[in-house]
Design a protein that fits this description.
- This protein has 2 domains: 173 residues, Rossmann fold (3-Layer(aba) Sandwich), CATH 3.40.50.2020; 150 residues, Rossmann fold (3-Layer(aba) Sandwich), CATH 3.40.50.2020.
- It contains 9 helices and 14 strands.
- The chain is globular, with a radius of gyration of 21 Å.
């Protein structure tokens, strides 16, 4: 089935250039030529150096550090595509920032995830493609088509291969809120599930503002002498993951692995994770990781094959869902 648009074009901002290049190599198309720079007055300038008139344009930008710059780059690139008469404009956002502000959980606060959706649509996105939202209801913030992919199959495939011969593996959810997705992860590996029961205690300090202190209570499930695989959608500071890892160690875990889709690794998280009881941390390249945030115990799997396959299917008007119905589909390996 051919596309109703002239050609496929993939462009990238500074927050998604390496991943976009890998996607283009998989898809067999060149990366679009665009200038994306920041002037000395901090204004961001974007220019598309090739025609996109009536073309099917995909703009790849992960909302990584520096976050505000990358958000503005994405919005300006979408606007440039719209004003250049692109046939269709799709925002490819491997990591959707502000995913935790999806509701008003206290008085006088914004719903920033909704604000982000509004800005992306106004800027010119006619559809959006992302991976593993922190809160699934964010899909409903968009009035344009919004496809949420999952990279969990890529992570489960890695541990299925690594764990051949393991008869003592157990998947561990770092909290009750992630238990459903952790259960699906465990079922994919045909291993049992354990859950870290955690309670967050909030208190207010007049000078420092509101602070949140997580308190790990106990592990629900058997982890003694087990190879534990901690799983979460993202790791920001690493505090919760490290606390659970220490708890597993105290409960007699034989070996501790961890995995996540989005390696935010804020502040000194990479250093803390490296010095934690976690033997190996497996993640993906939805966010760029500079050399200082990598260490020998970190394994990075690429989502480029998955995104390339989905982008090509969207361009041809072919169903995306069938990818995930095939356990051994090349895009998930």
């Amino acid at each position: 089935m051919g596309s109703r648009f002239d050609e496929l074009r993939i462009f990238a901002g500074n927050g998604g250039r390496d991943l976009a290049q890998a996607i283009c190599e998989r898809a067999g198309v060149p990366l679009g030529d665009a200038t994306v720079i920041k002037f000395s007055n901090e204004n961001i300038f974007v220019k598309l150096n090739e025609s996109v008139r009536e073309k099917d344009v995909f703009v790849v930008q992960s909302l990584a550090t520096p976050l505000s710059d990358n958000i503005l780059e994405l919005l300006i690139m979408l606007d440039a595509c719209k004003r250049s008469s692109a046939g269709r404009v799709t925002a490819v956002i491997p990591y959707y920032a502000y995913g935790r502000t999806d509701k008003r959980d206290q008085p006088r606060v914004p719903i920033t995830a909704r604000l982000m959706a509004d800005m992306i649509q106004v800027a010119g996105a006619q559809q959006v493609l992302t991976i593993d939202l922190h809160a699934g209801q964010i899909q409903g913030f968009f009035s344009v088509p919004m496809d949420e992919l999952s990279a969990m199959s890529i992570l489960t495939r890695y541990f299925a291969e690594k764990g051949k011969g393991w008869d003592d593996a157990v998947v561990v959810s770092p909290d009750v809120g992630f238990a459903k997705r952790a259960r699906n992860f465990a079922e994919s590996l045909s291993v049992p599930l354990a859950i870290a029961e955690k309670r967050r205690i909030q208190y207010f300090a007049r000078r420092e503002g509101q602070l949140t202190a997580p308190e790990i209570l106990n592990i629900i499930g058997d982890v003694k002498n087990k190879r534990c695989i901690l799983v979460d959608d993202e790791i920001a500071t690493g505090g919760s993951m490290i606390e659970v890892a220490h708890l597993l160690e105290r409960n007699g875990a034989r070996e501790i692995y961890a995995c996540c889709v989005h390696p935010v690794f804020a502040s000194n998280a990479a250093e803390r994770l490296q010095n934690s009881p976690i033997h190996e941390l497996v993640t993906t390249d939805t966010l760029p990781l500079p050399p200082e945030k990598r260490w020998p115990g970190l394994t990075v799997l690429s989502v480029s094959a998955l995104l390339a396959e989905v982008i090509q299917r969207m361009n041809r008007g072919v169903s995306v869902d069938t990818i995930f119905q095939q356990r051994n589909h090349p895009a998930l390996l």
